[in-house]
Design goal:
Chain B is mainly alpha-helical and 291 residues long. Chain B has helices spanning 2-33, 40-58, 62-88, 93-115, 140-162, 164-174, 176-181, 186-211, 220-233, 238-258, 264-278, and strands at 130-133, 136-139. Chain B has a two-stranded antiparallel ribbon with strand order 1-2. In chain C, 38% of the residues lie in helices and 19% in strands. The chains are: A alpha/beta (245), B mainly alpha (291), C alpha/beta (380), D mainly alpha (332), E alpha/beta (245). Chains B and D meet through helix 3, helix 4, helix 9 and helix 11 of B and helix 4, helix 5, helix 11 and helix 13 of D. Bound molecules: adenosine-5'-triphosphate (ATP) (2 copies) and magnesium ion (2 copies).
Chain lengths: 245, 291, 380, 332, 245
């Protein structure tokens, strides 16, 4: 099915995971992310998309199944070890450090560079250059920013860590159209830099537009999948199918 | 009059420095980990006995013990963290508090068994001596303890303020998951924070033992002082803790001089009430989060 | 022989001590002498030919706990003789329970003239002076000093705790440092009380110094008194007389550790080996092992009350409480605290020793007949 | 201002009744024992249990349901005790009569303290309430009417020892039953739900229409009132009160401990926690008479706090949820 | 202005609010009639959330007035306003975490002393059905997905049959299919119950379709007001917010 034949960078095989023992949320999910591609993960509310990303990022221990990054099974790895392997999560909802300033928030995104303070400082400046609208907010505590401004800080904090694989959960929520469009352009730029992106988004149209390949989850299981053309062709039908209406 | 004022102020400042370090570790652990370490004063007491034993057995001066206490108690703190705190972080706040109280009582009782409840004092060469400036007598031991307290406070302040780890420590307190996802090893860093808190308690215990009598069962009085400092200073800010300690020390020496002594504490509590009415989280201005 | 003794139903003496909590320090001293007495009496063949057993619970320095434990001692354990717990505020709470069970309370644990009076002789004490008389010996001593060595201006620090307050104020205009000072023609230039948990006394001592007080009375607990003594030294304050007249702190093991700050400080206690009471030297020797020249007052009174029990039971040949009460009130007892004669309220007749800590030793400076050294004044 | 009404409950009526019956049977057994029991010691231990049930239930209102951890319950208790004692000292009024006044005095204090403190959340609130105990204690030490450190003596009740024990047994039992009933009612009323909403998210609760400030004040005042009433009765029971024992921090701590052991935020929690803690402590006290008993007790406390989340009631509800088939409602 | 000639339901008059140096709202005025939906748009950080916060009493305005049915409400507490029929949702979902989903819906009813239990239950069930949470009704609120929590908030705002609802990005992270249900539900409430809405959303097409009136804030000022069609044609709105497609 998969058009690209290079070795997948991230491979999820038969993952079963949940929050309480005996009640799995993910009930055997399979997924492959090709390097340098954007892979969409779609599905109705409560399908288990965020749970999947959290499991990949190490916040949840799968009770069975494998999560393979490159050629290493990272399923049992604690979350903070993921950044060393340059795989990073942008979680759903708010996740700034509210009492630290915007600059400090972004700086901490480069925690793995902590050995080299000069480089880190440069990287922070590079982020302000890349996201100029954050510059004015530089010394404000992140908790006092508006919802969209906080999301922007989070994205900058993600990017500064220079991850190879990005797990992104609803990047554009709360962003105004201009900024949202920028974010999608940014995702494409990240892809162009050779990074791999796993994108969860409710904005199906936007997601399909930039995703190379997309999976649909429903009730913690794989539903349908396909590449961009497959989805663009018959979006309405697809949407109706996921809902099982 | 002038030398009286000078006396009041120096005495207040020295006292305030000592109070400040009694509260410093507590403030740190509470502000960052959200854990009210009521066993704090028990660790202070252990610090005092640490100095006592080194003094009794090896004749080691408490000034040296002060610096020895930091690594030793840091280690102790990380061990306690691994044994207890990793679980406390997972239970509800009330249960965590109760567990910490259990720890306090346990330490107190084990110390009673080890050292009996006799009141102890450490008398070093300088303990009974004073610096005499005209009619002004300043106890040397307080000068030394005050200086040590200041050093400790500055060390902490610089650490939290200027190092990236310090920033990561603050970040961890604000959003644990986010800290994890930028790659911060939260468990390890929490152990460091708790270790630092206990190191601070241990060092404070040494400083207190230089100045005041101590015994395993009177440790709890320091809890009250530490609380006072923390409530006034707010959580997790070293500078504010220092300021709070100084305010309390100065207020105590001022009101001692001009009021009947038993009102000193009332004055302190009134001050506290005023602060709480004016700004609810002590001197620390916490960011009101956007809704 | 021992065998026969062991087979008999033991006589049970019960009580509590605050082995943990705020009163653990004195309670520990009691525990030591209780055990010592128990070993001795059983060695000698027990009481009334029966072995003696002791049940001492830990009341955690908490009155409610003590109450429930005394109920248990009286109801469940059916003790024959009841010992008081340490300190007035625990003792006050259990007195009604004990008395309502028609038991005598053998009290080596607390002073409290009011409580004694209420009980109308059913509390048998071993403290030879109650709170109003804590400073009596000191003022008697001062009366005997030459005019130029007598202090004129008194400063008083009292801990906010029931007993130091009565030590200062007396009861119903009788006794108390304030009254004694007035009677001796001194003026009280500073009268301060300090709360529990007071850490630092520099300001307070400074006040006394500024008031030119030539006599300082520290009425407090061990912790406070140690710190006051140290601060007095640090502030270069040298009154003619400095007495720690609250808890008998100069006889505790920490006192010598104060170094030069300990020197010249006056304290009071119940009795001292120089008075020649039988057994007191041996008791002092037992405590010497714990620290140089310390004989805690608690040890003396704790041991003495058991001697009273021993002599009363042996003398009256019964455990009947009424008979014991009558016996106690009509006989003399030879104890390490002195030779007791009981007054109607159940307290022994006043006797006291004033000590001064000179060159690393407690010396008796009053009364004259037990004196081991002359008073050194002003303080060194 | 705040009307009280009951919300729809998911429990069905008959199981709830059956569960209530267990408690009812227990209270009847206790009443019978109070009449026929002759062991003073047991009577007195049980009345201490009841006393703590009352205090823990009072704590439970704001602490358990509302999530405001008051580590200074003894403040209200002590103020109640002192109010009664002082009224006796100056007006010869028996604490049996003045206990409600003692409650009122505590409630007033509760409201006064509540104004600055109930805006403070989380651990910081726990700290502040601890300090308030010290502050009130200092005040009592310094005030002439309370006779400072000397304390106040009250008159013994003119009854036989058994009579006295029975009197307090029934008084405290009565209070315990009444307060438990009140807490039960609160749990099932909109007031209780409002407290729970506050515990969960205070801002959201306020915005959704819960009068958070009033609810917290009332909860605090009610708790203070209850603690004050039993404080007044306690003064009569112990007959001599003075500041350090009456405001002993241990009491505050015990209350929280009992709530945590039994299960905070449930009306059954205090009924389970208070006897359990007291009995274990008592057992240790008489079996291990040295100071080691407190060390053992503290280890038990630590283990319970760490390994039994939600206390006994937490274990029970989790067990039930696991063993009862989940009734899934059919969509209409 | 809105059509109704008589007194508007909500009148916002020259409201200003600043945080330290940040001017979040500057002289904002508009009004909301009964039975109407007002769409509130604007770039990130333009003051939309702040405006909602001022209306329902979370923040006090520095100056200006807010009137509900002619009565000043800008110094009133949020709980009093809720009792008079003003409710809201939050930009970042705030549910009562340890309560069951159904119990969450009861909280807004607490202040309605004249509660008919069966009616309340029926209403709760109806809304749960609408947002697709029926099968999660007994789940603990913290154990549903991020999107579902937002849906729960939506239901919670409507359960007490309010007069005016302030919604902060109700559609963010909501599945397209459910979004259409929400839109329909809002229309129904307006039509049947006469509820009015102020809806903040960055999903402009949806908002345009459902609003009677639209306001665009830019940097705390009203950049444009009027019918949705005119507002989105406005040059300043396109410049500052929508971007040129
Ligand atoms: N509590 C606060 N303290 C300081 N500044 C604040 C606070 N709340 C909001 N602000 C500032 O006020 C301005 C308006 O914020 P607001 O949250 O109202 O924006 P918004 O229009 O809702 O944006 P978004 O679409 O991103 O949610 C922003 O610049 C924000 O940083
Ligand atoms: N913290 C939790 N504890 C227990 N169960 C949870 C938790 N979070 C989510 N779940 C369960 O997992 C299911 C999937 O949640 P998840 O957050 O992965 O959904 P999602 O696909 O991201 O949905 P959305 O688009 O709404 O964010 C939920 O329906 C819920 O039943
Ligand atoms: Mg999600
Ligand atoms: Mg907003």
């Amino acid at each position: 099915m998969n058009a690209v034949s290079s070795a997948p960078i991230l491979k999820i095989a038969n993952v079963v995971a949940g929050y309480t023992a005996g009640h799995p949320v993910l009930r055997g999910v399979n997924l492959i992310a090709q390097p340098g591609h954007i892979t969409g993960v779609l599905g109705p509310n409560g399908a288990g998309k965020s749970t999947l990303l959290r499991a990949i990022a190490g916040f949840l221990q799968p009770s069975s199944g494998r999560i393979v990054l490159g050629d290493e099974d990272i399923a049992a790895l604690p979350p903070h070890r993921h950044m060393e392997r340059r795989i990073a999560l942008l979680p759903q909802g708010r996740s700034t450090f509210p009492e630290l300033t915007v600059a400090e928030n972004i700086e901490l995104g480069g925690w793995t560079m902590r050995g080299d303070r000069a480089r880190l400082r440069q990287a922070v400046e590079a982020m302000f250059a890349r996201y100029p609208h954050l510059r004015a907010l530089r010394d404000r505590p992140a908790g006092s920013l508006s919802g969209g401004q906080q999301r922007a800080v989070e994205i900058a904090r993600l990017v500064i860590g220079d991850p190879k694989v990005l797990l992104i959960d609803e990047p554009s929520v709360g962003l105004s159209p201009i900024v949202a469009a920028q974010v999608y352009r940014e995702l494409e730029a990240l892809k162009a830099e050779g990074r791999t992106i796993l994108l969860v988004d409710q904005d199906v149209r936007a997601a399909i537009k930039i995703a190379d390949y997309a999976y649909v989850l429903s009730s913690g299981r794989n539903d349908i999948e396909g590449d961009r053309s497959a989805f663009e062709g018959d979006l309405g039908v697809m949407v109706r199918r996921w809902l099982g209406v | 009059m002038l030398d009286r004022l000078a006396f009041i102020i120096t005495d207040g400042i020295l006292l305030g420095l000592i109070y400040a370090i009694a509260g410093l570790g507590l403030s740190l652990v509470l502000g960052i980990m959200g854990i009210v370490n009521v066993a704090h004063s028990a660790f202070i007491m252990l610090g005092s006995f640490f100095a006592f034993e080194l003094f009794r057995r090896l004749g080691l001066d408490p000034i040296i013990s002060f610096f020895l206490a930091m690594p030793v108690f840091f280690l102790l703190g990380t061990i306690v963290y691994r044994a207890l705190l990793t679980r406390i972080e997972r239970v509800s706040q009330s249960q965590g508090l109760v567990a910490m109280f259990g720890l306090m009582v346990l330490i107190e009782n084990l110390s009673t068994i080890a050292w009996t409840t006799d009141t102890r004092v450490i008398t070093a060469a300088y303990t009974n001596a004073s610096l005499v400036l005209g009619s002004l007598y300043i106890a040397q031991v307080k000068l030394i303890a005050g200086a040590l307290a200041l050093v400790l406070t500055l060390l902490f302040w610089a650490f939290l303020r200027f190092t990236l780890i310090g920033r990561a420590i603050r970040a961890m307190g604000q959003n644990r998951d986010a800290a994890l996802s930028v790659g911060i090893d939260v468990r390890r860093l929490s152990a460091v924070v708790f270790g630092l808190g206990i190191a601070c308690a241990g060092a404070a215990g040494v400083a207190l033992a230089m100045v005041f009598p101590f015994s395993p069962n009177t440790q709890i009085q320091w809890l009250a002082w530490a609380f006072l400092v923390v409530i006034l200073g707010g959580l997790g800010s070293v500078a504010n803790t220092l300021i709070a300690g100084l305010i309390i020390g100065l207020l105590q020496s001022l009101s001692t001089a001009f009021l009947p002594f038993d009102y000193v504490y009332l004055v302190l509590y009134v001050l506290l009430a005023v602060i709480l009415v004016l700004r609810r989280e002590g001197l620390t201005l916490v960011v009101k989060r956007a809704i | 022989g021992r065998e026969a003794l062991a087979q008999q139903q033991p006589i049970v003496i019960g009580g509590t001590l605050g082995l943990t909590g705020s009163f653990a320090e004195p309670s520990a001293d009691y525990k030591v002498v209780y055990q010592r007495w128990l070993d001795e009496v059983n060695e000698k063949g027990g009481l009334l030919g029966r072995p003696v057993k002791m049940i001492i619970y830990n009341d955690e320095s908490t009155p409610t706990v003590a109450q429930s434990l005394y109920s248990r001692l009286l109801d469940q354990d059916q003790v024959d003789l009841v010992l008081a717990p340490y300190t007035t505020f625990i003792g006050g709470a259990i007195v009604p329970i004990v008395l309502s069970h028609q038991k005598l309370l053998f009290n080596g644990g607390f002073v409290g003239i009011n409580i004694f009076k209420h009980a109308k002789g059913s509390i048998i004490g071993s403290y030879t002076y109650q709170e109003p008389d804590y400073t009596r010996g000191l003022f008697e001593l001062i009366k005997g000093l030459p005019e130029d060595k007598r202090p004129k201006r008194v400063a008083i620090f009292a801990a906010q705790n029931p007993f130091p307050i009565v030590v200062r104020d007396g009861v119903g205009g009788v006794g108390g440092a304030l009254n004694f000072a007035k009677a001796a023609g001194m003026s009280v230039v500073l009268n301060e009380q300090y709360p529990p948990n007071t850490t630092d006394f520099t300001g307070l001592v400074q006040k006394a110094k500024e008031a030119n007080a030539d006599m300082l009375l520290e009425l407090g607990l061990p912790n406070d008194s140690l710190q006051v003594a140290r601060t007095v030294k640090q502030q270069g304050y040298k009154p003619l007389i400095f007495c720690t007249c609250g808890s008998q702190v100069t006889t505790l093991s920490a006192w010598p550790k104060l170094g030069s700050a300990a020197d010249g400080v006056i304290g009071t206690t119940i009795s001292w080996p120089s008075q020649g009471y039988a057994g007191l030297t041996e008791l002092a020797d037992a405590f010497k092992k714990r620290g140089d020249d310390t004989l805690p007052t608690y040890a003396i009174v704790g041991y003495a009350i058991l001697q009273v029990i021993e002599q009363a039971v042996d003398g009256a040949k019964t455990l009947n409480q009424g008979a014991l009460k009558a016996y106690v009130h009509s006989h003399e007892f030879k104890t390490v605290a002195g030779n007791f004669r009981y007054q109607d309220d159940g307290t022994p007749v006043f006797s006291q020793v004033v000590l001064q800590y000179i060159k690393g030793k407690n010396q008796v400076v009053w009364p004259k007949d037990a004196q081991t050294a002359a008073l050194v004044t002003p303080m060194p | 201002m705040l009307s009280l009404f009951f919300l729809p409950s998911s429990d069905n009526g008959s199981t709830r009744l059956r569960r209530l019956l267990v408690w009812l049977a227990l209270s009847i057994a206790l009443i019978v024992y109070g009449v026929v029991g002759r062991q003073l010691f047991l009577l007195s231990t049980l009345s201490t249990v009841f006393l703590y049930v009352v205090l823990t239930q009072a704590w439970n209102i704001l602490g358990g349901y509302g999530g405001y951890l008051n580590f200074g319950m003894v403040t209200f208790f002590g103020v109640g005790a002192y109010t009664s004692a002082v009224l006796f000292q100056y007006f010869e009024l028996s604490p049996f009569l003045t206990a409600p006044v003692a409650g009122l005095a505590s409630a007033v204090l509760g409201v006064l303290i509540g104004i600055p403190t109930l805006r403070i959340r989380g651990a910081y609130f726990a700290l502040v309430t601890m300090i308030i105990t010290f502050a009130v204690q200092t005040l009592v030490l310094d005030m002439p009417v309370t006779q400072g450190a000397l304390g106040v003596y009250l008159q013994p009740v003119r009854l036989s020892p058994l009579g006295v024990e029975q009197l307090f047994y029934f008084l405290f039992l009565g209070c315990a039953v009444a307060v438990t009933a009140l807490v039960y009612a609160i749990e099932h009323s909109n007031f209780g739900w409002a407290l729970i909403a506050i515990r969960e998210d205070e801002d959201a609760a306020e915005i959704v229409g819960v009068r958070t400030v009033e609810v917290k004040w009332i909860a605090n005042a009610v708790a203070a009132f209850i603690a004050g009433v039993v404080g007044g009765l306690y003064a009569q029971r112990i007959m001599y009160i003075e500041p350090s024992g009456t405001f002993a921090f241990d009491i505050s701590l015990n209350v929280v401990l009992m709530a945590v052991v039994g299960g905070a935020g449930t009306w059954q929690g205090p009924l389970i926690g208070a006897p359990l803690v007291l009995l274990v402590a008592d057992m240790l006290r008489v079996t291990v008479t040295s100071e080691v008993n407190r060390a053992i007790f503290s280890v038990i406390v630590i283990l319970i706090a760490l390994f039994i989340p939600g206390g006994v009631m937490g274990v029970w509800t989790r067990w039930r949820r696991r063993h009862k088939p989940k009734t899934v409602e059919a969509p209409s | 202005m809105t059509a109704s000639a008589e007194q508007p339901l909500l009148a916002i008059d020259a409201v200003g609010k600043r945080f330290g140096g940040v001017i979040a709202l500057d002289d904002v005025s508009f009004s909301v009639g009964a039975h109407s939906v007002v769409g509130l748009i604007g770039p990130n950080g333009s003051g939309k959330t702040t405006l909602l916060n001022v209306i329902n009493g979370v923040f006090a305005a520095d100056h200006g007035e807010v009137r509900l049915s002619g009565i000043r409400i800008d110094r009133k507490r949020s709980c009093e306003l809720a009792a008079t029929g003003l409710t809201r949702t939050f930009q970042a979902a705030r549910v009562f975490r340890t309560l069951a989903v159904r119990q969450n819906l009861f909280i807004p009813l607490l202040h309605q002393s004249a509660l008919d239990r069966t009616a309340a239950s029926a209403r709760a069930n109806e809304l749960l059905e609408l947002v697709g949470l029926t099968k999660h009704a007994e789940s603990i609120a913290s154990e549903i997905s991020g999107g579902q929590q937002r849906l729960l908030e939506f239901a919670r705002a409507l359960v007490s049959r309010p007069r005016l609802v302030l919604m902060d990005e109700p559609f963010a992270g909501v599945h397209p299919q459910i979004k259409t249900l929400l839109v329909r539900c809002i229309r129904d409430s307006v039509a049947r119950e006469g509820t009015s809405f102020i809806i903040v959303s960055h999903e402009v097409p949806d908002l345009v379709a459902m609003s009677d009136f639209m306001v665009c804030l830019v940097e705390g000022r009203t950049a444009a007001t009027g019918s949705p069609a005119t507002v989105i044609q406005n040059e300043r709105v396109i410049e500052g917010y929508l971007g040129r497609a």
